[in-house]
Design goal:
- Helix 2 packs across helix 3 (171-199).
- Strands 1, 2, 3, 4, 5, 6, 7, 8 and 9 form a nine-stranded mixed beta sheet that branches.
- This protein starts with a helix and ends with a helix.
- The protein is elongated.
- By secondary structure, it is α/β, with parallel strands linked by helices.
- It has a single domain, classed as ABC-type transport auxiliary lipoprotein component (Rossmann fold, 3-Layer(aba) Sandwich).
- It has helices at residues 2-19, 86-100, 171-199; strands at residues 28-30, 48-51, 55-56, 64-70, 73-82, 106-108, 118-130, 137-148, 153-165.
- The chain is 31% helix and 34% strand.
């Protein structure tokens, strides 16, 4: 009887272990670190710009590397992840790219900086590897809004979308394509800011 009870108890324990969520350890962590270094002018203007920390829409506020192989459904790679949420990694890339244009007297990234003439806000809308296309592509989109701080007037806004083919249908293939997307995004964003500031 004791042996039978032991067998039943053991079966119950293993059954519970089988049902308990087991978190797969992350084997590979990746970064976004590509940005535009294009210089626009040799001598800066007297204009200053504050670049605020990008926000991410729901579903993208995570280090998980997301992909889709079914319409309307996002999934995450089990053993591959970003080292930080993509919106966080996008921040220094955007700041450095705009700084490299040479157009602004100062490009601030702290909300406690002295008042700037303009403010750039960014929202990450999507970043996932789409396996519905062959080869797979990285789908990246973000909204940028330029505001004049004196009167809080929105000067211009734009949604930037990129589809970059992956070199391989693997997580790393997606990482390479995602870095190409951030390079293009920062180039377009820098041009957008400088062009619209010049018009005002």
């Amino acid at each position: 009887m004791k042996i039978l009870n032991f067998i039943i108890l053991s079966a119950g324990v293993f059954s519970l272990l089988g049902c308990s969520p087991v978190k797969t350890p992350i084997s590979n962590q990746y970064q976004l670190n590509s940005y535009s270094v294009k210089k626009f002018v040799s001598n800066p203007s007297s204009i200053t710009l504050l670049v605020t920390a990008p926000e991410a829409v729901a579903g993208y506020q995570t280090e998980q590397m997301l992909y889709t192989n079914k319409p309307y459904q996002l999934e995450a790679f089990a053993k591959n992840a970003w080292s930080n949420p993509p919106a966080d990694m996008l921040y220094p890339l955007l700041v450095q790219s705009i700084q490299r244009t040479g157009y602004f007297e100062a490009v601030a990234s702290s909300p406690y900086s002295a008042k700037a003439d303009y403010r750039l806000d960014t929202q990450l809308l999507s970043l996932e590897q789409n396996f519905l296309k062959k080869p797979s592509v990285i789908q990246f989109s973000a909204k940028i809004v330029l505001t004049r701080t004196d009167d809080s007037k929105v000067v211009a806004s734009r949604i930037i979308s990129e589809q970059i083919p992956c070199i391989a249908d693997t997580p790393y293939g997606g990482v390479v394509a995602a870095n190409k997307a951030t390079q293009r995004f920062t180039a377009i964003a820098a041009d957008f800011v400088v062009s619209n500031v010049k018009r005002n």
